[in-house]
Amino acid sequence: NAGVTQTPKFQVLKTGQSMTLQCAQDMNHNSMYWYRQDPGMGLRLIYYSASEGTTDKGEVPNGYNVSRLNKREFSLRLESAAPSQTSVYFCASRVRGGSTDTQYFGPGTRLTVL
Amino acid sequence: EDQVTQSPEALRLQEGESSSLNCSYTVSGLRGLFWYRQDPGKGPEFLFTLYSAGEEKEKERLKATLTKKESFLHITAPKPEDSATYLCAVQGSPNDMRFGAGTRLTVKP
User: Fold this and answer.
1) Looking at chain B, which residue has its C-alpha nearest residue A103?
2) E-assigned strand segments in chain B
3) Per-residue pLDDT tens digits for A63-85
4) Nearest neighbour of A56 by CB, restricted to B44, B95, B99
5) Are the C-beta atoms of residues A13 and A19 closer than 8 Å to each other?
6) Closest-approach residue (CA) in chain A for B44
7) Mind telling me how many Å the CA of B22 is from chain A's nearest CA?
8) Is A49 helix (H, G, I), strand (E, B) or coil?
9) Nearest to A65 by CA among A98, A106, A19, A97
């Protein structure tokens, strides 16, 4: 049981380049999330997917797109990277039911845009 | 707009010295308040979910409490392995999960 996995772990891009961050979970959770974490700031929600086939914008969606490929996978795409998108990106899956409401986070992708 | 403020930013304790971390929040319709632990270079690890004022939850040396305006994470007799950044988050609307900037806890032996 690997939990939430993210690839790549590190990435350096030049301004204007595109890339896709991959995320997969093996816990059969319906909900998945993408966050970014910047120094001195809390995690900020980029996009989320409440279930397979649905996606919704979070607090900071500009410059990003997402795809919920199936129940396991939720990818984040940067079409034209900008230095302001230098950050650590975390994917999470969420389970809710009864008194349980828990998010499980991946190890993160550290992205630098030059 | 929902807001979360955590204090202090950093806290240094001696092993065994109990203390509390604060999470103040404003949210329209609290759906849940969450505490996480984050070690350097890793993703956050879930600790607790609280739903309503007066609720308390415990896990080993940690106890989380909730009022209508704030939550406390009490750490009793901490050990060096409790050193980490502790994050608080609140959810109001379905598409709005707000995190605080965190409290960086260091426990010296």
Assistant:
1) B46
2) 3-7, 10-14, 19-26, 32-38, 45-50, 56-59, 62-66, 70-75, 84-91, 97-99, 103-108
3) 999 999 899 999 999 999 999 99
4) B95
5) yes
6) A105
7) 15
8) strand
9) A19
